Amino acid sequence: MNEIRENPVLERIPVDGPCPRCGAEELRRYPVVSEGGWFQVVKCQSCLYSVDREPWSRLGPIQLLSDSL
Amino acid sequence: MTEPARLREISDDEFTAAYGSDRFTSAVILNRLRYAVEHMSTGFMREAFSPIIRDWYDFACTISGPPERGYPMAVVSNSLVVFLGTLGDAVRNAVEEYGPENLSPGDVLICNDPYRGGTHVNDVCFIRPVFAGGKIVTFVNMRAHQLDMGGTVPGGFSATKSNVYENGLVIPPVLLWSRDQPVRSTFSLIFDNTRWGGMLLPDFKSIHQQLKLGEQLVLENIERYGLDAYLGTLTYACDTSAERMRDAIALVPDGDYTGSALIDADGLDDTVDYTVRVTLRKRGQHIEVDLSGTSPQARTCINCGVLDAKTAVGVALTMLLDPEVPFTSGTWRTIDLATPPGTLVSSLPPDGGIMMFWEASGAVVSAIFDALNPVLGEKGVAGDYGSTNTHNASGVTAGGTPWTSATQCGGEHGPWGATKEGDGDSYTVLFFLNNLDPATETIEHDAPVVMLRKEHAIDTGGAGEFRGGAANLKDTLWLSAANHYLSPFRTKVPSGVGANGGKAGPNGAMWFFPPREGARELLGTSAEVYAGSIPVAGVLDPDSKAPDPEGVYHYFASRPVWRTEPGTVLRCLTNGGGGWGDPLARDPQRVLADVRNAYVSVEGAARDYGVVVVGDPHHDPEGLRIDEQATAELRARR
Ligand SMILES: [Zn+2]
């Protein structure tokens, strides 16, 4: 009686426009964790240039109920 | 995007403008801060009551900078790497949630939630703000494993718990000391929900004193060199790591590289195994690590959180690319971890319980080695023994005294893989742990157990120009009835993978041997011995029950608790370390020494290395010699 479990894949949302560094039309928005914690980035998928990099919520995808107090 | 100026090349004036001090003074301050965390560590180890602190060194100390600079973790002790890797984020997350404005001099903030700070609930973070001029200027921190944090299994080390509620007590950021006064309600919360509080209390008091010591040493530096120089040094330390890691990454060819590692099963049943998959995308000085395709979070608490996965990425890249890079938050400056939520290595509450976290994040290390070793060629590093194969047991002696034995009598210690520098070490801990080995005398003192064997197993290092470390073979005789929890996770495929053409080390297993008539003599190690065993774990021959890669898998939690009668022997054999380079290129003199030292048998020397050794290693070890001609002929035929 095993449930079918798909392996999760990170969603990368397409963003219009070319990469200002390499010109590739491959910008995507998604969260990353790095030095300084979580960020929502818009990155070129060809050269990894970060067009935009904003701090995201402290625990990434996890929200605390106590944050709603 | 301009490249940052190189630290060696900026002028002295530029350095002082950037870091508030001259180069020499910054180096002095940094060394004094490294001394501070080591001094805190030594003090704690000297005073600790808990065996896991005293004998395993299961703690770490760090220094982080203030909130307005982003809590840079600039200084770490020489200790448990999985703690160091997560402490930077743990301090930031705990302090931000509690509110830095709510902290006062003399406070100790604690937090043990794996999702907020990494690792598992037994590892409590102790965070002390250091004030200068009425402001928080730094945090001195310690994370230390507490013997018990509640939950359904004494001590907690078990793969069988299904969610965070069964797992143990979760402590959000709360004060344990307020202005150096104990907060009684927090102590009661812990003591009312955990076992063995009598051991926790004196260790908590010692931690409080070590944090005060760290605070005092930081303040002495600020008084002597000034606040600007102190804060600048924290920035400089992180910038140094970032620059060295950027340089190391730049040496890897641009490309997309994939790798994987397998975990045998979780604690529910053996119908599901778990794969960690990584894709490393490397461009210039940047690496993005994507864990997409990794198995969903496990049904029991063998998961790790994303901060542990991040630690594993930092450790793997440091080990492979430049082991000299100082480990700070700057290590990750040009590394992004991109992971879908809800995998084995990015699990979510409440169902994705986290206990055996280092096993899951260790698989991330293995997967990164798997991805990069083929690219790195001779810079590749062979794999280690893969799992701490943790053993925990408890019971009551015939005289009625309760006892417990935690992480001492399984396959906790084992070998590393070989590198271009030489053979793999044989009896250490996993690549990213860095602990001590408990002394046999204390193990036998604390529980009704006799350590019969703790030895290198022959022919278990992966063959190579440099040989993998030997697997560890450990036999323990249990004098009382006992309840055992066993957690070997990596027996299906080799963890000790080869590098640069080296061979993988063979896999280990675990067995119980029922009490024998009046028997206290050693169990043999030949294949026939295993027929009389009850297999616990491993891939074994169906008839002989000896290790056999073509055999059948035995599931470690087929009995969630293994109950044994007095006189039972537990045998744990770890996986072997991987070899580096072509085995036929190994210097025959090294093979001869291996036969002399019982790393390799006479048969193994011929089979694995093409070296013909003549003589009797047991009865005339000094008389061993190489048959040069037979060796040349044998190697020529390969
Ligand atoms: Zn680009």
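qc> Chain B has a mean pLDDT of 96.
qc> done
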